[in-house]
Write a structure and sequence with these properties.
single chain; Immunoglobulin-like; 16% helix
Length: 154
């Protein structure tokens, strides 16, 4: 199974549709430089969990000691391409299980609220590579992502 299918197939299909290419090809063209010789992610900071046409808000920040983390941002741009109802989403690669990408299931927050939160699963790992992104209400448009590395201190 390819990372495209594991990470976020609907996101990469949406991106591919806008450029007239196949999802695995677009995913690979954006991320080929992030993989090591054995197919593992070697450059988490430059890895693109998602991509898309929605802009990311400014000044994204993550705080907390986990497993609950807070996310804040600024959204002073009032563009036609964004909506206050765009949903906060969190992509996760746990340090000790980085071959299995996940989208966090416990996430709260909408773009217009200027804050949100997510919970990581301590039973999977204590450190994680987190990719913050947004999607519209219908789940058909997505943003690129912003990378953070977090640690659960418990």
């Amino acid at each position: 199974m390819t990372f495209t299918k594991q990470v976020s197939p609907e996101i990469w299909r949406a991106v591919a549709k806008t450029v007239g290419r196949h999802a695995p090809n677009v995913f690979f063209s954006r991320n080929f430089h992030c993989f090591g010789e054995e197919g593992q992610i070697a450059d988490f900071g430059n890895f693109m969990f998602t991509d898309g046409t929605l802009p990311l808000p400014r000044n994204l920040k993550v705080s907390g000691e986990g497993p609950l983390f807070k996310v804040t941002w600024q959204e002073e741009r009032m563009w036609k391409t964004v909506s206050g109802t765009d949903r906060l989403q969190i992509g996760v690669l746990y340090d000790n299980d980085s071959r299995i990408p996940r989208v966090a299931s416990q996430v709260k927050g909408r773009r217009g609220e200027l804050h949100g939160e997510f919970t990581l699963d301590e039973s999977i790992g204590k450190k994680a590579h987190v990719y913050i992104f947004f999607c519209n209400e219908t789940g058909t448009r997505f943003s690129a992502c912003r990378y953070f590395h977090v640690k659960i201190n418990s």
